[in-house]
Structure formats: structure tokens, C-alpha cells
Specification:
Elements lengths: L1 H34 L3 H17 L17 E9 L2 E10 L2 E10 L9 E4 L3 E2 L1 H30 L7 H27 L18 E2 L6 E8 L2 E11 L15 H12 L6 H11 L3 H12 L4 H7 L1 E3 L2 E14 L1 H28 L1
Antiparallel strand pairs: 1-2, 2-3, 3-4, 3-5, 4-6, 7-8, 8-10, 9-10
Helix pairs in contact: 1-9, 2-3, 2-9, 3-4, 4-9
Organism: Candida dubliniensis (strain CD36 / ATCC MYA-646 / CBS 7987 / NCPF 3949 / NRRL Y-17841)
Protein name: Regulator of (H+)-ATPase in vacuolar membrane, putative
GO cellular component, one term: RAVE complex
């Protein structure tokens, strides 16, 4: 009986070993004949995306071949909302916003300007991220091309010597897929909060007229569009709302954190204790004493609208978000989306051989 069990186990192990060798042979054939021949085309597509985003042209500039950089991309901006309007043009050159000419009609903004010009280039960090991801992806693919010769040499050797190279290719394709996905995402929205208000502080000297710190301007990409976000700000001077500690946290920031962490109402004991540390009174009496004098914001306005920005506590009086379609961004996104589908197909097929 014991002998039969051992014989059965040996038979099963033998079958599994034969199946594993066969799977590896099929995987090897698939890589050599289906994947590696496609790598140059994938590299070329990524290089075209990089050139489009960097040079506004599918080809890299080359003076010897009389290939010049593409022209800057000048795009229209227009937004009309009741009696307010924003009109003008924005110019993108590679990963930079190089020019902006705006006319704004709104009483909040018109305290500071009617026309706004950009006088210093602004970097679109999302495009810088995409360019870095594409460059890394091209390096991955170029390294994978060297596997072609190595696998060809291994073809006549023992099958188990293929495994390391196969695993490397699968892992590299997974890295490549992450890079392409992240590139697409950067063209769709600003993932890094440091790129936009309130963490990013507007450099007023980059504009003509020079902007007050009561105006915030952001440039970013969203849904393959170039966007400009204009905010007119009101600075809060009422205590305790205007207070900011040495760590850059405002009274409202800490209050929100406490409310979130303790899941408590504004008037519970822990929140009242926090208020008392600042003003020796409870939250409602403190609010009302200020509000009775100013009649500007109610309690929930302060809690929901106050934002810590540039070492100030502000509320947004008015916001305009104006976007314009960029044909180059749309083209690059389409190419990256197609490559993502191809890479997903490769990974699915490679994994199926390992099942």
C-alpha cells in the first residue's frame, strides 16, 4: 500500500514537472516571437509622447537634419457667468506656461486688476512628472531588448535557465504598467496637493500687475486640459480664527482635527476645553461675541470656509476655474492609453503561462 502511494506521488510529481517544463517552453516562445519584436514600436511611441510634451513636435530638434522645435501652443480661455467673465489666452511651451493674457470682469478681482499678464514662465509639474515617467519607461524597455539575445542563447540550453530572465521580464512589465498608468493620471488631475492651493503659494511677482497676497493663481492639468484657477481671498482677522501656531496650523485646522478624531459635536467638553485654552471661554460664547460685532460669518462659516494659506487664515470670496483643451495632451493620453492596454495584455498572457 505504501509503495503504491509513493508511486502515485512520484507519478504526479513527474506529470507536474513535465507540465512546468512545457509551460516554460510556451512562455519562452511567446516572449521571443510575440513580445520582444514589439518593443521597438513601443519605445518609439513613448519617445513620440516625450517629444510632443517637451518640444511640441513628434521629433526631437536636430540642427544637422534641419528639424526644429515645434511652435508654442497658444490656447483660448473663456468663461462667462452672469455678469462675470474671464477671457484671454494661455501659451504652453513644453512643460512651461510661458504666457498668459487675461481680462477679468468681477468686482472682487477688479479691486486688484482688470487685465493680468504672466511675466515669468511657470512650470507645469505634472508634465515634468510625465516626462520623467516616460524616460524611465524607455530605459526599462531598452534594458528588456538585451534579453532578446540572452534568451536566444539560452534557447539551446536547459529549460530551467530561462526562468530567471522570464521573471525579470514579467517584473519589468509590471513596473512599466505602473509608469504608464501614472503618466495618464498626471494628465488627468494634480495628485500632489503641493502643486495647488492652499499648499502652493502664488508668486505675485510672476505677474503684471504684481499680485496681492489676496489673490491666488494656480496652473495645472485636468482631463487633458490646461487649467487656470483664480481665487480672490479675504483674510480672517477675528480671534481665535486667525491664530496660527508655530507648526503652521490654524485654530480651525486643530478644531477640525479634534472634531474628526473624536467624532464629537462642536459643543462637547473636549472641544470646549480646546477653545478655553485660547480664549478662556466656551466655543459658542466666543463665536457670538465676535459675530455680534462683525455680523460677517456665522460659526459654521468659520469652520467650513476657513483655509490656512501662506501663513494666513482666509476664506475664498470668488473662484474662477477656466480650462482649455490641449490637442497635444489629448494625443499623448490616447497613445499612453493604447500602450497601457497592450502592456496589460502582455502581463495577462505571461501570467497565464505560470498558472
Amino acid at each position: 500500500m505504501t509503495t503504491n502511494i509513493l508511486d502515485n506521488k512520484a507519478f504526479i510529481d513527474s506529470v507536474l514537472s513535465i507540465q512546468s517544463i512545457q509551460n516554460d517552453k510556451e512562455l519562452h516562445w511567446y516572449i521571443i516571437n510575440m513580445i520582444l519584436p514589439d518593443l521597438p514600436q513601443i519605445i518609439e511611441t513613448l519617445q513620440i509622447c516625450s517629444n510632443l510634451l517637451m518640444y511640441n513636435s513628434p521629433q526631437e530638434p536636430d540642427s544637422k537634419q534641419c528639424i526644429e522645435k515645434g511652435p508654442s501652443i497658444k490656447l483660448p480661455l473663456s468663461l462667462t457667468n452672469q455678469q462675470d467673465s474671464v477671457n484671454g489666452t494661455i501659451t504652453r511651451d513644453g512643460p512651461y506656461i510661458t504666457n498668459l493674457k487675461l481680462t477679468v470682469k468681477n468686482h472682487y478681482f477688479n479691486k486688484y486688476f482688470y487685465k493680468l499678464h504672466l511675466i515669468k514662465p511657470m512650470v507645469l509639474e505634472q508634465l515634468v512628472n510625465v516626462l520623467n515617467l516616460i524616460r524611465d519607461s524607455i530605459e526599462i524597455l531598452q534594458n528588456l531588448q538585451s534579453i532578446d539575445k540572452e534568451l536566444s542563447v539560452l534557447s539551446e540550453k536547459e529549460d530551467n535557465q530561462h526562468t530567471v530572465k522570464h521573471d525579470q521580464l514579467i517584473n519589468d512589465f509590471k513596473r512599466l504598467l505602473v509608469n504608464i498608468h501614472d503618466s495618464k493620471t498626471n494628465l488627468q488631475l494634480p495628485l500632489d496637493p503641493n502643486l495647488i492651493f492652499p499648499l502652493r503659494v502664488t508668486d505675485g511677482e510672476s505677474f503684471e500687475p504684481q499680485l496681492s497676497d489676496r489673490v491666488a493663481v494656480d496652473f495645472y492639468l485636468s482631463q487633458n486640459q490646461v487649467c487656470i484657477d483664480l481665487k480672490s481671498l479675504h483674510r480672517i482677522t477675528e480671534k481665535p480664527w486667525c491664530e496660527i501656531d508655530d507648526n503652521g496650523k490654524s485654530f480651525v485646522d486643530k478644531l477640525r482635527e479634534e472634531m474628526k478624531n473624536k467624532r464629537s459635536s462642536v459643543g462637547d467638553k473636549s472641544t470646549s476645553d480646546a477653545i478655553n485654552q485660547n480664549n478662556n471661554t466656551n466655543i459658542f460664547s466666543n463665536m457670538m461675541s465676535h459675530l455680534s460685532l462683525r455680523h460677517k460669518y456665522d460659526t459654521m462659516d468659520y469652520i467650513t470656509r476657513c483655509i490656512t494659506y501662506n501663513n494666513m487664515v482666509v476664506v475664498v470670496n470668488k473662484k474662477f476655474e477656466v480650462s482649455t483643451e490641449d490637442p497635444i495632451l489629448i494625443s499623448c493620453f490616447t497613445k499612453l492609453d493604447s500602450l497601457e492596454s497592450i502592456i496589460k495584455g502582455y502581463i495577462y498572457s505571461l501570467n497565464s503561462f505560470s498558472m
